[in-house]
Amino acid sequence: MTETEALALLQLEPGASPKQVRSRVFQAYQQVTAALSQLDDERQRPLLEAQLKRLNQARDCLLSGEKPSQTLLNPQDFPAQIAVLLCRQGSQEGIYTQRIGNQDLVVCFDQEFAARKYAQQLAKKGLPRPTLEWFDSREILEFCQGYGYGLTLIPSDAAVAPPEAVADTLEGWRTPPS
Length: 178
Known about the structure:
The protein is of the alpha+beta class. It has helices spanning 3-10, 18-37, 45-62, 112-124, 137-147; strands at residues 81-89, 92-95, 97-100, 103-109, 131-136, 150-154. It is globular, with a radius of gyration of 16 Å.
């Protein structure tokens, strides 16, 4: 894929910043994964999976040199503190993630208002309302790297909603080794 094709696919202008690319890729991922979760006709699955593949190619083309399987955001772009959503089920607590392709991404925020709004939207989908917790961004990055999660920062200027289909269990949650 050429840079021109990648920019056209993501509907970006030449010279778009890496942050703009990452934001647009994340929004496009959300749209495609939402369509996958609401799929009525399995014959359309290959088309949607092909769209995910093209989004990955566009991301790789425009953000060459980064490790997109590790994160959708360059660690240097992170603020010192980021907010994550913690979900409680019984006595277990887990960090909110979103699955994009084959990667679970910890969703984080740099602004409290955006995080609280996202948490409210999750609660409207029938999930227990997650709590907002602030962490040093390096701590979250280390957690993600240690457990194989990706990480994405919801830009403060993005109007992002949770996917239509959500899992309401904490299965697969891994606790840190003692």
